[in-house]
Amino acid sequence: MKLSIRQLGLVSVLCTALLGVVIWALYSEYDRPWKIYQQQFRQLNPGSSAKDNPARIKQIWNEELGAVDRCVTCHEGTDNPLFLDAGQPFKTHPGSYLKHHPVDKFGCVICHDGQGPALTADAAHGEVDNWPRPVLRGAFVQYSCIKCHKMEQLLSGSTAPDGASALIAGWRLFTQYNCSGCHRMSEVNKAARIGPSLTFIGNKVNRTWLINWLRNPGDYLPKTKMPRFNFRDEEIGFITDYLMSIRSSSRGVLQYAPTGHIRPSDALTAIEGKQLVSSLGCLGCHMINGNGSNFAPDFSDIGNKVNHGWLIQFLKAPRAYDPKTIIPDFKLSDYDAEKIAAYLVSLKKNTVIPATAGIQRKDWIPGLTRNDKIKTFPNRNDLLSDSITKGKKLVKDKGCTGCHEIERLPAVYNAPDLFKVGDKRIDVLTFGNINKIKKTLKDWMLVKVTDPGSFATDRIISRMPQFDFNDVQAEALVTYLLSLREDPIPPSYKMTVSGRDRLRYEAATVIDKYNCRGCHVIGTTGGIIGPDLSSEGRKSRPEWLFTFLKSPYKIRPLPMLKARMPEFNLSEREINTIIEYLSSLSDEPYPYNFETKKEIGREDIWNGEKLYQEIFACSGCHTVNGRGGQVGPDHTDLASRLKRDWIRQWLENPQAIKPDVSMPRFRFKDWELEALTDYLMTLGIHRFIDIKGVD
User: Domain containing 278: what range?
Assistant: First the structure.
């Protein structure tokens, strides 16, 4: 069959086009970017040559992960320390991560995301349309640590040698701000409420303060965890009326019967109250005019917030008002409670924001005229009742019960689930009218946690409040949120959680919850209000520690310490966790080993007592059964509290254990040291010594 001239022309055009495609393909393959990078790498690396290291696609085939990783085709210097100062893609991987995570086993994508099989920069980095996981850089990469390391290990510091600081910080923020109060994190567990109980808040605060607080909590407490909901004035009015209606005159803690000793305006009383606040260690948790800690609310303006009578009763019995509060009970007398309350209510800042402007009832019921009030609400009580009903509905709708106990309202989730938020696809995210950010999950999250209202449109309602996270906090929080995804990782890659790691994690949870380091040094950090607890496991008997933490009592005279230990409502599990952790810090066995009682004669006891009472005059500083000095700790129940070995080491050289201690070093002879130790071991309800001839 002969082709026509027209057909021949078409064939020649097609052949020419095909030839062009072939030539273009050959040329583009010859000049691939990865080949150029490998050529440049050989020039930078004197020990490499084209003959020994020809241009080729390099890949890591990880059968267990089921992944192909060709990142090393361009990133050839990633595990070569000679390229620390080189630019990308030749730069050595920072830190010592690869020492514990060799490239040939882990590859790159397992940590950094991206598209492993790709060979161009954009495609390999996943920065192309429809690729769900583009490469993550900087601190965001730390999200992947959770794939193999549980949070218990990361918090203990036993793994991830270069740290996962952003991931850990994000987890802490997520926990401290109680994100799971609104967002479901599991099918079973509901997060604990972190905010104070609002049941009977009408007895606690004044209306003016509450209105200002609802308008913007940060104006009163700049470091508050309470977000800004951007309520309309009418909503503030409704919520205020509802919350102020929650009051009681029958609950004992809310009833105030003054002793008659003092008046709130008594200046001398306020001074005495200030001294008590300092001596009791309140500044270990609270801030007053720039002094103290940010663990708990700042007291600098508390006088504009709380009612005086309520405060007195709360100081006397915090758990009578809120059974779940972590505020300790200081067992204050009526007089001391009144003095502290007088000082606290005197703390008022000069700047007062007009609270009622725009929130009068005529304003927060839109469009309601005087005549309408008469028609719709025949009397003031009907008007107030309607407002309270609307306020209660707002409290439930806005998710307030996720953080606060309010009457018996149930805690409900009013926001999307987060337990797989790291797997969200881009096509299900709503970007609103924002066009200036990259269409990635990471970038969407960054905007969501810093400015959630920016996604709102006429059709999209933003319910999330404003938390005012800074850039560092936002980066950390997003890093943690990205870790909430399902990644099938082989068991051989996952680190086993050791008992020590789990203990450190559980202990950190308890210690952080009650802010133990606000007063005590534990390990390497903490306050100086109370004694250093780093070696407490070597010093104290676990059974005594349990009793003491359950119900603390005075051991040392107050001048020796700045504060006395209050009573925390610790559970038995929390107490045992603390004791086990303190034992581990001192490398002491737990459960503990009962020591063998030493058998001694009566003469040995008499010799020890004579040394204690007469020769070295220990009773001049220490009390035994109510007799003696008030300079050092009480020795009445010493044998029940302290371990024999520690007592002996302390007597031998107190400064070796506590360099700044005021107790002198007596340089005892060996027999004196032994006799004194034996005598001290008889001072206690539970004697850890057997006396010959005594049943």
Answer: 201-402
